[in-house]
Task: inverse folding
């Protein structure tokens, strides 16, 4: 009996139709059909007539064999893998004689079932059964079936072992092995097998070509694909529809859409929807959406029946907001054709609406789906994350867990990203725990996303822990951890990590360089930035993205000249290039240059984005350039920018800093969805103009709308209270910040509270507050106390504050100037000289007073005692006339006690008359129509004498004088100031 099995002499029944016939046009069809053909023509080398005779003369065992064999045949017909396997085992052990008649037939069917269901364990058991029955020794057919099964079940090594041990192979065996290679991602191996077939002279068939062409497409082997195209044509298979479809897909994946199009156009028969699907999806994948949709229309006009894959390809072409209307038309067409029930079509609809930003429509399609697979959930989750709907994404993730669908790696990646972008650390940790429980935490991509999530949540320790626990790290891992350290100001840790990367010999790419540049920007190290810049030039790593980063970092470290040189060297400047240079100018106090560059950008074809607008609004605000600010506001409206987020906040801030608080209020009230930054900007705007009570009322409205304040909000509130004399309110808000919102005060908060107490002459309370601070008082704190002591002439506490301020050895020249002025007011000229010498020894210079005024869309700048203006003589003449008029009509007298120089009274008076804000006022009176408001900005605090001068000037000139100094706004009208002499 064993010899019969070995020699294959006993041939009974052909493979059943169930095992060999499939209606699908996929590459798997040819394999099963080929195997059946091979079984008849190769395993049985006899004529068709003899074969029919042999089969006809076999006794009908279904009538004479035991019931176990009948059970086997019955279960094979039903296609039940588990039951058929059990019946086969029973027959094998109970009726060894009968098994010889059914083994090959049964195993062929069962191996196909195992392949289709990817049931590797059952397939291995069938393999063992065949080995035990010695049925593989000369059965090429069964060996080929095993190769096919192992390939489909993902066990590529087992498929290769069976293939290598086969003494004889047919074209079907080779096709099965190439198919196993392709389905398991071993595309190089598939092409190697193809080359080996050619060397051995194996005769190819039509079903070989789709497999190797797919491998060529994935590997971008365009030249080899063209060669295989020639071979297919030579063998007479070039006109086969499924070979043409594979060729179209190969050319498209190799970015040769012209070749794909020419081949498609040359096809005589275009009735196969697969051909159309291939060419449509090829154009959609290449981003040629309009061409893909045109092909879809041609397909409908040609009367070719569209199917699921057609709709999916067409909807992929509509994943752009500009094609949304066409996508909705296709949606309606799908509803009419009743194809929406197919899960692939519904998934494509969800993806299309999500990519177009229509998440409401995406959710409606999703909820209407009768059957949802993992891709359905992941498509929705990805869409929600891409559209910044993070809380909704987390909700659907929980719904996914509660349903029968188990989240996979893509689901987890989306949720980690959502947690990071929303700063939701708790949810991020929950998803991390889920990944650990389900064995996903060792995945490289999940590990990288976890690092990024913890970095965005400012959780550096967990970020480092996630990085260290990764079993395998790639370049993205190192880049992400370094960028995370840079974002969280752990600059030295990032630097050490970068050194490790270099020691490990990992190739450094532009993204890594960009991350380390951010570190050096944070360290404010020009030398390090120059070193990295040189490294980039030597390694030829320069691209536009990296050049933009270099411009930005040079701006951060204050090297404007280098930033400008790099900017000018960028050949293909994009909007980020321009924005980086504009931001560089703004960051380094060159607001005029920033505005000029923005106007140059508008002359190009590049459209400024919201970040560029925010930067240039900051420049206009710094200069208090109302006309420029209004022009930019008009540009924002014309270009259709949404008045929300950073743009709205910047407009509120710009109008406030240009002295038009009413415009800030109008913009603020027009925004429906107010975020924390907008509320904070409006609170700060009121504080800047001395509207402390309005600022506090805004805070109450904000908290009533469940907007949670942060450190910056409370800083703006304390500032507003300080400049409005709201002592009790300021102290209460300080306690609310600590006790209700559990925000640990920054040094700036302490300085604000000290300033608040000091301005109200509660110097003893302020001093005790400083002494009892839980942290070491900063220079800002002692500076606030010392300033209050100078105003209220408290020498004792002032002496203590000055001493502590000097011990801190601050690099802020303004602190030295303040100490010097306190000593000068007390006539301690020796101490004044000592402080000034110490200041010079530290390489510091007093910041010169500077004022500017906007006249006829130009900014005119004046320094103290400046004579560089073209109309300088007229300006000084006007100033002399104005001073005499104020003395005669307003009773103005120069207060020389505010001149902190050891010179004569006459010289002190001349110094006061030459202050920059008075020169700006004189020019504005000359150059602007009578009765119009005058807006002046000064970089330092307005001195007491100039403050009195402007009060009298507003009454005598009958003009509104709006002055913004380093502390706040002063609205001078009819002899009064909005600050109430409290600034």
Result:
């Amino acid at each position: 009996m064993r010899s019969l099995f070995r020699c294959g002499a006993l041939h009974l029944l052909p493979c059943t139709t169930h095992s060999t016939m499939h209606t699908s046009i996929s590459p798997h069809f040819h394999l099963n059909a080929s195997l059946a053909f091979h079984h008849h023509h190769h395993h049985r080398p006899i004529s068709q007539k003899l074969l029919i005779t042999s089969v006809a003369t076999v006794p009908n065992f279904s009538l004479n064999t035991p019931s176990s064999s009948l059970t086997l045949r019955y279960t094979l017909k039903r296609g039940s893998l588990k039951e058929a396997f059990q019946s086969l085992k029973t027959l094998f052990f109970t009726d060894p004689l009968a098994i010889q008649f059914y083994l090959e037939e049964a195993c062929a069917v069962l191996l196909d079932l195992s392949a289709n269901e990817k049931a590797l364990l059952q397939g291995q058991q069938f393999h063992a059964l065949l080995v035990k029955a010695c049925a593989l020794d000369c059965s090429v057919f069964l060996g080929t079936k095993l190769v096919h099964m192992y390939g489909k079940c993902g066990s590529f090594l087992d498929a290769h072992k069976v293939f290598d041990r086969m003494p004889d192979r047919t074209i079907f065996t080779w096709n099965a092995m190439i198919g196993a290679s392709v389905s398991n991602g071993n595309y190089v191996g598939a092409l190697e097998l193809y080359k080996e077939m050619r060397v051995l002279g194996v005769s190819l068939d039509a079903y070989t070509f789709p497999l190797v062409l797919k491998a060529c497409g994935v590997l971008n082997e365009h030249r080899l694909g063209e060669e295989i195209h020639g071979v297919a044509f030579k063998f007479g298979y070039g006109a086969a529809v499924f070979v043409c479809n594979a060729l179209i897909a190969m050319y498209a994946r190799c970015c040769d859409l012209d070749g794909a199009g020419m081949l498609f156009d040359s096809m005589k028969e275009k009735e196969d929807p697969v051909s159309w699907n291939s060419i449509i999806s090829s154009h959609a994948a290449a981003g040629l959406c309009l061409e893909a949709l045109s092909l879809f229309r041609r397909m409908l006009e040609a009367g070719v029946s569209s199917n699921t894959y057609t709709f999916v390809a067409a909807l992929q072409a509509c994943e752009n907001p500009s094609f949304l209307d066409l996508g909705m038309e296709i949606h309606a067409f799908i509803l009419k054709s009743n194809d929406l029930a197919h899960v692939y079509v519904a998934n494509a609809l969800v993806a299309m609406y999500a990519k177009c930003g229509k998440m409401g429509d995406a959710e409606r399609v999703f909820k209407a789906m009768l059957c949802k697979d993992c891709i359905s959930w992941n498509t929705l989750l990805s869409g929600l994350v891409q559209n910044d709907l993070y809380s909704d994404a987390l909700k659907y993730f929980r719904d996914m867990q509660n349903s029968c669908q188990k989240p996979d790696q893509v689901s987890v990646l989306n949720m980690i990203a959502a947690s990071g972008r929303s700063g939701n650390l708790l949810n991020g940790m929950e998803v991390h725990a889920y990944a650990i429980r389900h064995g996903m935490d060792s995945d490289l991509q999940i590990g990288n996303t976890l690092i990024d999530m913890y970095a965005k949540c400012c959780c550096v320790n967990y970020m480092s822990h996630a990085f260290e626990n990764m079993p395998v790290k790639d370049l993205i891992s190192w880049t992400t951890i370094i960028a995370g350290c840079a974002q969280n100001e752990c600059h030295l840790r990032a630097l050490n990590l970068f050194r490790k990367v270099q020691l490990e010999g990992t190739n450094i790419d532009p993204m890594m360089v960009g991350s380390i540049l951010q570190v050096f920007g944070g360290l404010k190290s020009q030398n390090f930035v120059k070193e990295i810049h040189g490294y980039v030039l030597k390694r030829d790593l320069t691209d536009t993205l990296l050049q933009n980063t270099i411009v930005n970092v040079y701006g951060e470290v204050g090297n404007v000249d280098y930033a400008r040189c790099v900017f000018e060297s960028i050949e293909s400047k994009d909007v980020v290039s321009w924005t980086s240079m504009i931001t560089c100018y703004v960051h380094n106090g060159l607001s005029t240059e920033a505005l000029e560059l923005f106007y140059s950008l508008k002359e190009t074809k590049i459209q400024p984005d919201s970040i560029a607008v925010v930067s240039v609004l900051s420049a206009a605000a710094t200069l208090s350039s109302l006309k420029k600010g209004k022009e930019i506001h008009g540009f924002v409206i014309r270009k259709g920018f949404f008045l929300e987020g950073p743009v709205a906040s910047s407009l509120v801030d710009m109008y406030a800093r240009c002295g038009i608080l009413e415009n800030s209020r109008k913009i603020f009230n027009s925004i429906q969805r107010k975020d924390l930054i907008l509320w904070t900007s409006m609170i700060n705007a009121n504080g800047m103009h001395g509207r402390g009570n309005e600022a506090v009322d805004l805070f109450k409205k904000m908290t009533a709308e469940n907007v949670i304040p942060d450190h910056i909000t409370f800083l703006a509130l304390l500032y507003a209270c300080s400049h409005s004399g709201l002592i009790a309110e300021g102290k209460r808000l300080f306690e609310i910040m600590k006790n209700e919102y559990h925000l640990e005060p920054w040094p700036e908060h302490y300085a604000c509270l000290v300033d608040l107490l000091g301005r109200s002459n509660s110097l003893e309370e302020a001093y005790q507050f400083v002494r009892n601070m839980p942290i070491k008082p900063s220079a800002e704190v002692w500076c606030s106390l010392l300033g209050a002591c100078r105003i209220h002439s408290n020498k004792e506490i002032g002496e203590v504050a000055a001493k502590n301020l000097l011990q801190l050895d601050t690099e802020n020249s303004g602190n030295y100037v303040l100490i010097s002025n306190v000593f000068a007011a007390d006539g301690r000229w020796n101490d004044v000289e000592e402080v000034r010498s110490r200041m010079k020894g530290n390489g510091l210079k007093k910041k010169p007073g500077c004022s500017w005024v906007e006249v006829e869309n130009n900014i005119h700048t004046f320094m103290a005692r400046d004579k560089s203006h073209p109309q300088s003589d007229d300006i000084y003449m006007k100033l002399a006339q104005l001073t005499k008029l104020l003395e005669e009509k307003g009773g103005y007298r120069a207060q020389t006690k505010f001149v902190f120089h050891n010179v004569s009274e006459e010289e002190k008076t001349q110094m006061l008359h030459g202050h920059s804000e008075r020169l700006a006022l004189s020019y504005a009176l000359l150059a602007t129509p009578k009765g119009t408001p005058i807006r002046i900005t000064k970089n330092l605090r307005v001195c007491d004498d100039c403050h009195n001068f402007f009060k009298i000037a507003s009454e005598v000139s009958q003009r509104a004088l709006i002055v913004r100094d380093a502390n706040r706004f002063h609205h001078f009208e009819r002899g009064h100031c909005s600050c109430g002499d409290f600034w």
Observations:
- The longest strand covers residues 850-855.
- The mean pLDDT is 85.
